Amino acid sequence: LFAVFAIVIFFWFSFHQNGLTLTLFAQDYTRLEIFGMPITAEIFQSANPFCVVFLTPVIIAVFAWLRNRGKEPSTPMKIAIGMGIAATAYLFLMFFSFALPDKAALAGMKADQVQSILVTPWVMVGLYFILTVAELFISPLGLAFVSKVAPPHMQGLMQGFWLAATAVGNALLFVGGWLYMHTPMWATWCVFVAACGMSMLVMLSMVRWLERVTK
Question: What are phi and psi of 38, to 5 degrees?
């Protein structure tokens, strides 16, 4: 369980950038209009809960389909896949950020120049869609894994440690804020690609051990 807790710290560190660097990116580098209507940077926060409601039955149906064919991955494997999906989300954003100036250069640009480099709002919608898929592979399944593996007399304590791992990930959010202000945009997202990608590889290296322990 502590091995899994250590992995998910990096997921929450990356996922909860939606309240920091991702909203700043929407504010500074995204064209804030959809279908000709003005929007605010904060509106993209609604994409995640919408996608949770929309995608949950889809993900459950996919897992049920795989289970009926004896091909459903184990929970540790699902968590590893979720980390890979999270890495893909930031790789997606990094692709659109290569041509963007850093914050210092952006501050010196004229308004018309800034408008010419803004990315489409659908980039943010796509990003949150991918991150939500990753969340559905990790958050509810991870908590269920804790309930399954923890000794009966330590259920509450272990679930508390799961929440503590979330808190540690949140405590690290400032790293993203510092990167956003002091590094090129693509380099900022590259750090999250690396964090999620390395976590996926570590999780994959532990999958057989975790599956054996679970059984």
Answer: -70, 145
CA-to-CA separations, 102 to 109, 113, 188, in angstroms, rounded: 11, 14, 10
3-state secondary structure of 35: coil
Q: Tell me which amino acid residue 178 is.
A: W
| CA end-to-end span of the chain | 14
Rounded Cα distance, 210 and 9, in Å: 18
β-pair type (37-38, 33-34): antiparallel
Element (DSSP H or E) covering residue 155: helix 155-171
In this structure, the number of other CB atoms found within 10 A of the CB of residue 90 comes to 26
Give the integer Cα–Cα distance in Å for 195 and 4.
Answer: 15
Find where tokens 């949770």 sit. 52
Over residues 114-167, the pLDDT tens digits come to: 888 899 999 999 999 999 999 999 988 888 888 888 888 998 899 999 999 999
